[in-house]
Amino acid sequence: MNERPPIDAIRARLARLLGLSRGPPRPLDAIVTHVEVNERHGVGVLLRTLFGDGTGVVTIRSRDDYDGRQDFGALAVRVSHRRGRSRAAVRRRVARALRGVEVRRVLCVPYYPDDVLTALALHDAHAAPLVTWIMDDQNLLEPSIPDDLVAELLAKSAVAFAISPELRDAYAEKYRRPVWFAPPLVAADRVRPPGGEDVPATGRPMVIGNIWGARWYQDLRRTVRGTGIRLDWSSPAGLSTFWAGFDREALAADGVEAVGALPEPVFVERLRAAPYVVVPSGTLDEADDRPGISRFSLPSRIVFAVAAAHAPVVVLGSPRTAAARFVSAHGLGAVVPYDPAAFRAAVAELSTPEAQRGVRLRAAAIAGRFSAEGVLEWLWRSLEAGAPADDRFERLAPAAPPGPGRT
């Protein structure tokens, strides 16, 4: 764990950030997540979209993946727990890290077992109501968090959300309790209003988001190679990769130019000029190297492209991925396998004026439903109610028929 600042320094900083000249700081909301909250990954972008600069928030993370860089929250600490550590030791460690801080409410975005242990310790020690928002599968197909910890986290959560309908339904079925849909969101000032659907897109098509597996990377290259289609790839993580063997020049030779992370205004401008965007996903076969992401992850970049640009989306991979199901359910583009001929045909069809107008009209009709405006208040009202404060997101993706995990 990072060296804890002296308690007087913590109190002074809290006083400055919260506008208090004397007396104890008011209670803070706690966000428990796995890494630093910043703009380089989807969870960080979403939390910053909802909470702004994090005034009135303390963040507790279990790892540093970005050199500890975080400009968010009144206080940010890192707390990790050695494997096998007792619950009493976990509570003491969390209490030491947050000495002098009163926690009002807890939002847990679990990724590692440490995140769950920290959230449970805060809930128990402060009698703080707990909301869980599952943004990555780390239990069903990616067995990082043990079943008993997930079961306890969900049992102690007043309300639980998942980032995709597929993740919602799977957790509800396995743990036999209600889980609700809360998608990635877009800042209200980035949501594009209806209009201009007849204006031809004159920019270059883009690959958006992270390419999570070596298999996805090789399949993308094989699919684009020789089609004559040129794409730009922008990822919030820049050109950092999750596998060995990434070759920027070879990728460009196949038709995909890696442009790295773009400033958001530039990214939005490029999206709005693009005739379509391409999202690599998984194949959900025995060779899929990231099946949890493939099946359950709704990429935040898809939602951003639809809401901010009304851009048609081409998903590469299995039609059973969360990305593919979202695009198909709302008529937002095409889903094709990693096959050059199928990709070329889908792009040709999607590039016709009729297809462009139809997709963009459908995107414009739902874009505002992904606005983050008012969602933070909605989240806390849902926590108080023990269920979604309204059905704004469930209407986008109605739950599966009632079963063992859903009433």
Quick recap:
This protein is α/β, with parallel strands linked by helices and 407 residues long.
What does this structure look like?
There is one protein chain. The protein is an alpha/beta fold. The protein has two domains: 7-181, Rossmann fold (3-Layer(aba) Sandwich), CATH 3.40.50; 188-369, Rossmann fold. It has helices spanning 7-18, 42-51, 87-97, 113-126, 147-156, 165-175, 214-224, 248-254, 264-273, 291-296, 300-309, 322-329, 340-350, 353-367, 375-385, and strands at 28-33, 57-61, 75-78, 103-108, 130-134, 159-162, 180-181, 206-208, 231-234, 256-258, 277-280, 313-316, 333-336. It has a seven-stranded parallel beta sheet, sandwiched between helices. The chain has a six-stranded parallel beta sheet with strand order 10-9-8-11-12-13, sandwiched between helices. Residues 18-23 and 403-407 have low confidence and may be disordered.
Number of strands: 13
Return the domain count: 2
Identify the CATH class of the largest domain: Alpha Beta
Structural category is alpha/beta
Intertermini distance? 42 Å
Averaging pLDDT over every residue, what do you get? Answer: 89
In the CATH hierarchy, what is the architecture of the largest domain at level 2?
A: 3-Layer(aba) Sandwich
Q: How large is the count of helical segments?
A: 15
Name the overall outline: globular
CATH superfamily of the largest domain: Glycogen Phosphorylase B
How would you characterize the largest beta sheet?
7 strands, parallel
Q: What is the H-and-E element order?
A: HEHEEHEHEHEHEEHEHEHEHHEHEHHH
User: At the third CATH level, what is the topology name of the largest domain?
Assistant: Rossmann fold
Helix content: 25-40%
- Contiguous uncertain segments of 5+ residues: 18-23, 403-407
How large is the radius of gyration?
22 Å
Strand order of the largest sheet: 3-2-1-4-5-6-7
Strand proportion: 5-15%
